[in-house]
Amino acid sequence: MPGLKKNLIALAGTCCFMSPVYAAGIDLSYGPDDRLYAYPIAGGGVPQGLDTIVVHNVGVFSQPDQGITLNKVRFDAMAGNQVVGSVQVNADKIEKSVASWAKRHANGQLKAYEPLLQVAKVVAGRTLASSSKFDPGTGTIIARTPMLINSSVDHILVTAEGVAQDGSSVSNSMRIPVVRHTSDISYGFPLCGRWMLAIGPDFHGHHRWGAVQEFAIDVGRLGPDMLTYKGDGSRPDMYYSFGAPVMAIADGEVVAAEGRFPETDNLRSHPGETPEAFQERLEKLQETLLAQGFNRVIGNYVVIRHANGEHSLYAHLKANSVRVKAGQKISKGSIIGQLGHSGNSTEPHLHFSIQNGPDPITSRSLPFKFDSIRFWDEADGDSGVLNGGQIIASSCAK
Question: What's the confidence (pLDDT) of residue 47?
Answer without folding.
Answer: 59
